Amino acid sequence: MGNVFQCCQTLSKYFKFKDTPALGGAERSPLLSSDESECESPSLPEYLEEDLSTVSSGLTNPALEPEHFLFPDIILSSNPGGDVTLVEPMVCLLVSEEDEERGGDGVGVDELAGGEGQARNSRGYSEVETQTEAETQIGMGVQTQTETQAEVQTQTEIPECSNDINEVNAVATTGVTELIDVDDREKKQVVLEPHSETDTKQKKKKKSKDSGSWSEMKAFAELKPPLKVEKPHEFEVTLLNQTLQTAQDTKIKEETEYQQHSLLTQEREKDEKQHTEGARTSVTLAEQKANNVDGNTAAVETHKRQGNGEAEDQTVNEMEETNSEYGSDLQRVFKLEEEEGAEIKQMTMFLVDRLFLAAPQVKAPPSQTEEFASADPSQSECDKGKQLSIRDIVDLQETAFTVRIQPPGAESFELQVSGQMLVVELQQVLMDHEVTCHRTCFSLQLGGTALDSLAELRSIQGIQDGALIKVVEDSYSVRDARLHLRHVRDLLRSLDPADAYNGVNGSSLSYLSFYTKEDKDGENAGKKRASEKESVDPSPPEYVLPGCKERPLTPLQPVRGGWKPLQCLRVLTMSSWNPPPGNRKMHGDLMYLNVVTMEDKELNITSSTRGFYLNQSTAFNFNPKPAAPKILCHSLVELLNQVSPLFRKNFNALQKKRVQQHPYERIAAPLQVFTWVAPHGDHTLDCVRAEENHTSRMGQDEHTAGQSRDWNEELQGCRELPRNSVQERLHRERSIFKTNSDFVAAATRGAVAVVDGNIMPLNPGESPHMQMFMWNNLFFSLGFDLSEHYRPLGGNTAAHAAARCDLRGAQAYASVDIDGLHTLGAAVVDYRGVRVIAQSIVPGILEKNHEQCVVYGSNDNGKTVYTHPRFLELLDKTSKPLRIQRHQVLDHNNSPAELCSGIETIGILGNDGRPYILDLLRTFPADLNFQFSETKESKEEVPKECQSFGYPQLHPHSLASLRPELIEAFVQHRYELFVKMVSQKLSHLEEQSEEITCELSTGDRENDMELQRRNVILKACEAVGSVSDSSFDIRFNPNVCSPGARFSPECVDEVQRQRRLLWDAAAFLLSNQIPAVLRDCLDHTAVPMDGVTLKTVLHQRGVNVRYLGSVLSEMDKVEERDRLSHVKRIAVSEVIIRSSKHIFKTYLQGVEPAAFSAAVSHFLNCLLSSSSCLPDSCSDELLSRRRSRRRRSHGSRVASLTDSVWARLTSSELWGRIRAEARDYYHYTLDSESIDEVIEKHGLQRISLLREIAIKTGIQVQLREYAFESRHRPVFSEEDVVNMFPVVNHLKSTSMDATRLVQQAQVAVQQGLLRDGYELIGQALTLFNSVCGVLHEDVSMCLRLLGRLSYILGENADALSHQEKAVMSSERVQGIDHPQTIQDYTFLALYCFAGGRQLMSLQLLYRARYLTLLVSGDDHPQIALLDSMLGLVLHGLMEYELSLKYLQNALTLTSKYHGATSVKCAHSHHLLATVYESKGEYRAALQHEREAYSIYKSQVGENHNNTKESSEYLRSLTQQAVILQKAINLIYSNTPSASTPPPKFSTPSLSTILQQLNLTCGIILIPLSAKEIADLKTELKRKEKVNADELENQLLK
Description:
Layout: H1 4-11, E1 64-65, E2 74-75, E3 84-86, E4 90-96, H2 97-101, E5 110-112, H3 150-153, H4 165-171, E6 178-181, E7 190-192, H5 197-202, E8 237-239, H6 250-254, E9 262-267, E10 280-284, H7 319-339, E11 347-353, H8 368-373, H9 379-398, E12 400-406, E13 413-418, H10 423-432, E14 442-446, E15 449-450, E16 468-473, H11 478-492, H12 498-502, H13 512-516, H14 522-530, H15 532-535, E17 569-574, H16 582-585, E18 589-597, E19 602-608, E20 611-614, H17 636-643, H18 645-660, H19 663-666, E21 677-678, H20 687-695, H21 711-719, H22 726-756, E22 772-775, E23 778-782, H23 796-816, E24 826-831, E25 834-840, H24 850-853, E26 854-856, H25 869-882, E27 887-890, E28 896-899, E29 906-909, E30 915-918, E31 930-931, H26 944-948, E32 953-954, H27 964-995, H28 1002-1024, H29 1052-1082, H30 1091-1100, H31 1108-1117, H32 1125-1149, H33 1156-1168, H34 1185-1190, H35 1195-1202, H36 1211-1225, H37 1235-1242, H38 1246-1257, E33 1259-1262, E34 1281-1284, E35 1287-1290, H39 1296-1310, H40 1314-1332, H41 1337-1352, H42 1356-1374, H43 1379-1394, H44 1398-1416, H45 1421-1436, ...
Parallel strand pairs: 5-7, 6-9, 12-16, 21-33, 31-32
Antiparallel strand pairs: 2-11, 3-8, 4-7, 4-11, 9-10, 11-36, 12-13, 14-15, 14-16, 17-18, 18-19, 19-20, 22-23, 23-25, 24-25, 24-35, 26-29, 27-28, 29-30, 33-34
Helix pairs in contact: 7-51, 9-40, 17-18, 21-22, 22-40, 27-28, 29-31, 31-32, 32-36, 32-38, 39-40, 40-41, 41-42, 42-43, 43-44, 44-45, 45-46, 45-50, 46-47, 47-48, 48-49
C-alpha cells in the first residue's frame, strides 16, 4: 500500500540504518467465494463449526449489504389464482389461524418448493404479484447480486457435492420442491418454499466414494463446482394453478419462463424434538430456460475430492438408480398425503423473503484446516457436539443472575449480570450506573477477596445469585486522576451533542427519542394516552406535504422546545500550579484543579492519592495546605456536592435525564461516525480537551504519555490466537475487532496530524508530497508517486488508486485467513485533499538494507524478481479461493521464477519470524476495458460485446481491476457452460456406445469409453478456459497486464489464453451484468436512494462505479426508461459529484491553511450556487474594513484573493472541468452548458448534491437554510464551512460463529420454523454483542430480523423493542439520514401502529418522508410507499383531506414506477376509494374502484380473490350511492319518508387500516379453506408427476 518499501528506500538518504516499511495484521472479513471449501462431507453441513465457502465480496458489513439492506425482510403476500409469479427468492407459509394467534408456533408442516432457474434473465417487467414498495427498497444485497453469484450473498451452508441425482440437478440450476407431512396431532400447514441447494444439504446425508475406477463412479473426473450453482436469489417462484383459486391465470403464466418441477419429501417424526432426524429423499427434475443450461445437464454430477489430488472421472450410467428412486419417493409422498387428516383448518399465507434468504452482510471466511477436516468421515459424528458447544456458549452468555452491589457510603442495590461478563466490564457498568457513576478508582471484593479484573464472573468461586459484591475505594495515581477527571467531564457533558458534532469520543447523533419519548410518570402517561388524539395535532409540517418543493435543512437535527443544557460548573480546568513540586509529591499531591461554581465561587482543588480536597492556593499565591472546610472526598463529584448547592441540584437533574436515555444513545461507537451538517455552537471551556490537545498523545495511551502501543504485535498476536473451540474463536474475534478499532482510531488521528503538519517527517528535506512519517509505531506515507515508482502505471493517479487496491487485497487475504501468512494492519485516510496511508511496522525492517528485506516478489517493477518456498507454500493455499494462477515469470537473470501473486506483491520475513506480504494492489484480475495506454491489440482480440460499448477506453491509470463479485459470477457462468457441454457430449457418447456395444469386448469398450470421456472433459476445459485439463478450475494470472512482468517463450500461449479469459470476463460484465443491474431496478429488486446505495447495487452485480457512463447509456436504450428515471437521476448526480470530488482533491492541495474555510465555501459556491458574485470581501479577518472604506476601494482585498489559484476558480471553469472529468473517467457526456441546466433537465436537488459532496469529501456545513436560487449573493460563506473530517477506509471483521447462526436462522425461516429462526438470531445477536458491541451493523441486522419475526409471530411489544434498538443503532452507526435508517423508521412506524400508538406512528412516518425528500427528492418509489402508509394512518385518524393528498400522490408515483396497469396501482386506487367512501363522495370512490377492478380483472382474471372482492366492494359502493341519492332527493322534495334508511358513512376500523398497512408493506393475510389447500396439493402432485415422467423419459433415451 503506497509502496511502503519504496518509501523505505527513499528514507535511506536520511538514515545510516536501513529502510523502514510498515506492516501489520489484518482482520478477518470475507471477501471472495472459496472453491476449496466445496468439499463433500459425509455429514450434514448444518452445524456452525463447519466453515462456509462464502466470503464477502466487497460488502462492508452488507450484509447483510447488505446487505446493506433496506428491503423488508418478511413479505406476507399472495396472488391466489392461476400461476402466480412471486419475487424471488421467497418462502410461502400457510399458517393456521390458531397458530397465528398463539404467536406462530408450529409453523411449517407441509412444504412445497419451487424449481429455480435463471428466471431473471428473461423475466417480464409488468406487475404479476401484489408486491409493494416494501419489497423493492434500497441496497438489498440478496436481490442485487450477480445471477451466478449464489455464494456472495445468499449462501447459507457449505456447498458440497452429492452422488444423488438431486445434487446433479442442483448443478443444473434447478430448485427443490418439498412436501412435509406431520402427525395429525399437529396443525396441518403447507410451506411453499423456493428451496436452495443449501437447504437440501441440510436435510440429507451425503455419500463419499474414493474409488478411482471409472466403472465405480457416477460422474466424470472431479467436476468441482467452484461455487453453488443454485441461485435462490435469482429464481422466480411459481405457485401453480389452483394455488388459492381453481381458475387459471394465463397472463401470469406468460410472464414466467418455467415452473417448479422439483419434489423433495420428508417424513417428520411425531416428536417435534426429533423432526430434524427424519429422512428426506429428494428428486430434482429440471426444465431450463432459453440460453441457460438445458435438461441434459441433469446428467452431470459434481463430486469434489480433497483426500487425494488425483483427477477422478465418473460415469453417468448410475443416474438411472436415482431415477428409479423417484417413483417410490413420489408414491411415498402421495401415500403420506393421503394419510393426512382430511380436515385442514383455515390457513393464513405469508411470504418470507429478502433479508431472511440473504446471507449476512459479513460472511464467515473458510478456514483451511477446518475445510480439510470436513472431508473426514468422523466429522459427521462430531457436528452435533460442535453445534451444541456453540449453543452452550450462547446459553451461558444469556444466563443472567442478580448480584447485590454495596458502594461505600450508600445503600446497596441489585444488578443483573451475565456469567460471561468480565470483572472489568462490571466495573464499567458501575461507572455508568446512576448510584456509582461518579466513581472510577475502585476495586470489587467478594467475601473480602479482591476480584481479578480480567476474570469472568462465572469463574469466580462463591459467585451466585444474590451474592454481595463490595465497591472498595483504591488509591489514585496520576493516570487514575486523569481518568477520573475525564470521566467527570463526560458526565457533565453527557447530554451535550457537541462531541457528536465534532466527531470525537465515539459520539454520534440519534433522534429517535425525539419522536418516541413519552411521559414517564404513570398518571400523566395514562392521561396522555387517553386524550392523545385531542392533545396532539396530526397535521404534518408543511415541508412534508405532497407537492412542497422546499427542502429545509434544520429539521434534520430537531431540538425540543424549551430544551436548555444543564450547566453544573462554570469552569473546570487544570491549574497553572501543575505539576506539584517534589515536596508536595511526598505528601501525595498528584495535580491541581481550578473550579468556578455556578455561585461564582472560585475553588482550588488538590487531587491526591487519597482523593480530592480544597487547598488555599489562589491565582497568584501557591498554598497547598487544606482549606476550610477540610473535606476529603474520594470522588471529585462528592466534593463539589459538598461545596456547591447548585452543582448538587443540577448534577442530580442531569443524571436523572442521562439515565432516562436509552443505552444505545449513550454508548460510544467503536468506529467514529461523522455528520455532514452541524449547528454553529459556542465553544466552551474544557480542561480535558485542552490537555489532550496540548500533550498531543493521539493514538497512544490516552492518559499516560510515552506509552505507545506496538500495533503490529497486537494485530498479529490476535490473529495467532487459537481458534479450535467456540470460546477460543469468540475471544479471538473480540480481540481482533477491539484491536482493529483502536488501530483505526489511532491511524485516523495520526493521519489528521500528518496533514495538519503536527508530526515531523522522516525526510524533511524532500518536497511535501514525498515526505514520510513514523509516529506511535505507525508508518504514514502519502498517496503520491514516490521516486516515480508508479510512473509506468499512471503516476500520482496510480499511486492514489493503489492505496485502495492494496486495502482491498489485504481484505481478501485476511478473509481467507491462512495460518502463518501475515498481512498489514492498514487504513486509508482522505483528509483535506490528501490521501494518507497508515500501516503497522514490520519488526526489524529498519535493521536491514533493501536487498535483504525482499525475499519474494519484485519491488522495482520486475527488474529484480525473487521467489521463496515458504511464501509459495502459503500463497498457494490462498490461490484457490482467490482464483490466482500459479505461474512463472523471468527474473533479472532471465531465469524462471515461480510466483503465486502479482509481481508487485513482495514478501518480507520479519525479525519476529513471521512472513509478511504487502503491496497487494494486483490481487484481483485486471479490467481490460480500461487501459492506461494505447495497445496494439487487434479488433479480433477485443470481443464484439466490448467493441459495441466502445471499449477499450483510455483510463488515468493501469490499476483498474474487476470486482470479486464479477469474478464469481463469471466463473459460475463458465461452470454452467462447462456442465452443459460435458452433459451433452456424454449423453451423445452413451447413445453411440449402445450402437457399437456388440462390436467390442467389455474391457475394450470400457477403456474406449474412458478415453472418450477424458477427451470430452479435456475439450470442455479448453473451451471454458480451465487451467486444468481434467477438471473445472478457472484461475487468473495477475501478471498478464503487469508492465514489468516478462514471460518465457514457452509461456506465450498460456499468457494469450489468460488474456483472452480477461477479455471474456470484461465482455461478460458488459453483456450480462449491466443489463442485470437495469433489470433489478426495473422490477424493483433494487431501489437506490442515493449515491451510496447506487454503488451497492452496482457492486452486488460486480459492476465498478467507473462503468456509470455505460450504465446510463444502456438505460437510455431500455423501452421502459421512464420507470428508471429515479435511477438515472441518482446516476447522473453521482457522475457529477464524483467528478467534482476528483477536482476538489487537487483544488485543496494548493490552499494555504488559513484559507481553508474560504476555499471550501468558494468551491461549493462555484458548484451549487446560481450566483457569480465574488467571495465575501470580509473573508480575511486580519484586514480592516474601516481602512478599506476610508480608501473607498476594496482593491487590496480582491487582489489578495485573486493571488491564490483557488480564488480564481469560476463556476463556468469548474463546470468545464467536471464535464471533462466525467467524459475521461466515466465516459459519459454531460451535454448541458451549466450545472443549472443539468439540475433542470434531470430534476436534481441542490440540497441532495450538497449532502453527497459533503459526505464524500468530509465537509461539514452549518445547519441553516441555504438559498440556492439566489442570484445576487453567494449561497455559502466562510462561516458555513464548520469543519472538515477525514474519510476513512479500513479492514473489517466480525463474528464467524454469529454469522453462521444467522445463516442457520435463514434456513429455519425458509422451512417455516419461525420460532427456531427467532432463537438462532437471538443467539447470533448475543455473539455479535460480545464481539462487536451493541453499536455495529451486524447487531442492527439481527435486531431488524428479530423485530420482523416478532411482528409476524404476533408479539408486537417485542417487535417494537427490537425495531427501536435497530433504528437507534442505524442512526448511530450509519447516520441519521442513511437510507437504512429511513427504512428502519418506516417499519418502526408500522409496529407502532399495530401496537396502538397511531400518532407516534404518524410522526415516525413524517420523519421518514422528510429524510427521503432530503436524500432522494419527491419523485421516487420510496415516497409512494410512505405516502400510502401516511394516507392509511391519517385515514384511521379520520383526517380525510390529508389522507387524500398523500394517497393521490402515491397513486401518481405508483403509476409511474410500476405501471398504470400494475396490481400495486390497483391497490392505490382501492385505498383512494375507501377514503372517498368515508367522506361520502361515492362518485369518486366508484371511479377509483372501477379502475382497480379493471386492473385486477386484466391482470389476474375474474376468478381471483382480489377481483371478486373489488366487484363486491363496487356493488356495495353503488348501493350506498343510491341510498344517499334517494335521501338527498327526499330532502329536496320535502317529503321525508320513514321507510327510507339514512345513508351510512363508513368509519375505518383500526384493524382494517392495519390490514391495509400490512398489504402496503408487503404483508398479506389470506384465509385458505381446506378444499383450496387440497386442490393445491393435488395440482402440484399432478404437475410433478408429469414433469418427472418427462425428464425420466429424456434420461432413458
